[in-house]
Each structure stands twice: as C-alpha cells, then as structure tokens.
Amino acid sequence: MLITNATIVTWGPTGTSGATPQVLPGQALRVQGDRITALGPMRSLAAAHTGEEVVDARGQYVMPGNICAHTHFYGAFARGLAIPGDPPQDFPAILARLWWQLDKALTLDDVRASALVCLVDAVKHGTTTLIDHHASPNAIDGSLDVLAEAVQQAGLRACLCYEVSDRDGAARAEAAIRENVRFAARLAETPAPLLASTFGLHASLTLSDATLDACRAAHSGGFHVHVAEHEADEDDSLRKSGLRVVPRLERHGLLGPQTIAAHCVHIDDGEAERLAATGTWVTHQPRSNMNNAVGAADIEGLLRRGVRVGLGNDGFSNAMWDEWKAAYLYHKAAHRDPRRAGGGTIIDMAVTNNAALAGVFFPPAPLGVIEPGAFADLIFVDYHPTTPLTAGNLPWHILFGCESSMVTTTICGGRVLMRDRRLLFLDEAEITARSRELAAQVWQRFEQLSA
Ligand SMILES: [Zn+2]
Predict the structure, then answer these.
(1) Exposed site from 5, 10, 96, 155, fewest CB < 10 Å?
(2) What's the pTM?
(3) What is the pLDDT of residue 14?
(4) Distance 136 CA to ligand 1 centre (A)
(5) Is the pLDDT of residue 15 over 80?
C-alpha cells in the first residue's frame, strides 16, 4: 500500500531532551504487511511502485497513532450513572460507592460491549495502542479472552490484564491470578500480533502480603498496578507493612522495567528514587486526577529523576489529545505557574515515553514514530493551521488547534480501520444500541448492589 500526498509528522527522537520532530510535506509512505518500508518524496516513491494500492492522504497530516498507557475498558457504562445518596466526599468513597459496585454488576456480555464502545472511540479518535486494566469480579474467568476478541474485532493493538484484589474475598483473588496466568499462557502458545498481556494488581490498599507474594510466584514478568493515587494508599501501606507503597511493592519483587505504576500522586522523594532506580514506568492521568480531586502528581520531578512517565486516560475518552491538553493545563493551574508542564514535557510523556512503553509489549518494531521499519500505526489528520506550523511549534498546534475529531483515517498494523471517517470493521450504530440496552441493566444491578 502506498500512502500518497501526505504531510508526514515523524515524531521520533523528540521532547525536551531530544531532537525536534520533522514535518515533511509532499511525501509518500510505503506500507507492506504491518510495517512502514519506505518514506520519501511522493513522485519518486510513486514512480518506483506503480500498480500498488494507493491511499491518497489529500495533503492531510499523517502521524503515528496515539498511544494510551493506562485505561479501563470496563468503565464505559459509568457515563451518566447516578450514585445514590450524597456525592462521594473523596476518592476512597468514589471507589467504594462507584467503581467497586459497578465492576460487580458486569457480566461477560457487558465486558464485551463496554470494550467495544471504547474501541469505537479509539479508532475514531486515532488511538491505536491501549494498555488496559480490567475488573469484573463476578465474571473473571475468560474475561481477558472476551476483551481480546473485541480488540481483534476492532483491529487495534492492546495489552490486557486482570486486576487482582483481596476486596472481594480470597476466591476471587485466586481466580484473578489464574485469569492473568491463563491469558498470558494462551498468548505464549498462540501469539496474536496485536495482543499482549501483563499481570494486573489493583492497588496496595486492597492487597495483602500473602496475595502480593502469590502474584509474584505466579508470574515472572512485570505488573500493572495503581500506586498512591490517594493518600489512603500510603496510609494503608504504612499501617500494614511499616513501609510506604513503593518500597512495599519493591519488597515483594513487583517493580522493574516491565512494571507500570499508575498515578503516583502521593509518593515521596524516596519512592521516586526507587521508581527511577528500578526502571519502573509511571503513567499520568490528569483528567482522572482532576475528577477525583486526588492532587497533581509531580510529573516534572519524576522526569528529571529519569523516571519514564507516560500518559494514560484512566477510562476517560480515547481522544488522547484531550488528555494532552488536560496535562498541559492542569499543572499550570495547580501550581499557578505558566512554566509548568510545557509542550516538550507533554511530548516526552504522550509520544516518546508512551512509544517506549508500548515497545515493551509489542516488540520488535518501533511504535509512535514514522520511519522505515516501524509498525504502520498511522492516523490522517484534517487540520488546516491558521498560523505557520513548524516542527518546533507542532506540540502547541496540537494542544491549541487539533481536535481528535479531525482524525479521518486510522491504520493499525498496516490495516486500514477507518477511512474518511467510515469505520470498516465496527458497526457503531449496533454497538451503541447494544451498549445502551446492557448499560440500563447494569445500572439496575448497580442500584441493587448499592442499596
Ligand atoms: Zn486506573
């Protein structure tokens, strides 16, 4: 396949520490299988490959697909859901009264429908790689297979796990461990190029020492865990172990260059140092942090220490540019300092580090960059800048000019999933109708569970 008439945004080594991206008009890209195999001036590349299928980008910006480093497909049915009683006063109350009731109301059918809603959103808004963290305590067995089927139907790239927790009893914690192990073994036996797995842990505050050890014993790779999203996680860890959350997880052998610690809002300097020393990834979810009023993580301090911080959406919309914009604005407001979280910092997280993190799960080709040899995960953006756009000011064009609804074409692993805003493999109307029907039933069960 030849993509012609493209203005290519390469990304590549970029951000505050690296070189700037390139913006190259009048280019063509050759895609063979799941890879980009050539990039060059349109005329010469088209002349060298006559007779090949041509996708005319009509001058649009062609960029690498966006990456989401932490999400929850199971949260889609929360949209518009009323929590009975007074509004929850803090994050622990939000967990107890919203998420730990909603997850129990989900069946495997709901898990599938909820994921498909998120995947439609991701294809439409140009997010091609997603790292999910799943919970459905009354439908654990096979839940990762159901998610995998939805992801394959959508044609996107996703890393899946089930969150182990003691909050619903020992039997469910054991079932959750089994589900992670079983799904990883399934992928090892029958690899699927667009699927990967890790091992999910809810958070220190709902995990006993025995369960942490059981998880470590069951799995040799990395973990995906919420860390210090609220002070309650640190308080609980100190009570249980005499250690803060990060050293507690480290004592159980759960950190390292394949582990993702989501949030890290309330960690201290010593914990930041351990995250850097162990090469553990951190993900930042500013929309969720604002919504839950948990505070602002010190993302710039972490980056300065060499911690690799990526950007996730925590189940908010898969329009990842909205998350970029939230990150850009949040830290300025939180610190009353317009110098905080500049464009380069946003690119470090959302582009550079997210691509490197995705590379942990999807070797061997690069993601998040347009160059020969990289995976062909691409989006076309119908953006018409009203001021000069250069490689140097591109981040601010995205932050202040681009909308995810400007994405017209989405390609993942060399396969066109949306062309000129038409979804080719997902029936949005059917998925939406089914979701509304199932969500109404989930809400009824949620109300009974909440009573
Ligand atoms: Zn989360």
Answers:
(1) 96
(2) 0.97
(3) 45
(4) 14
(5) no
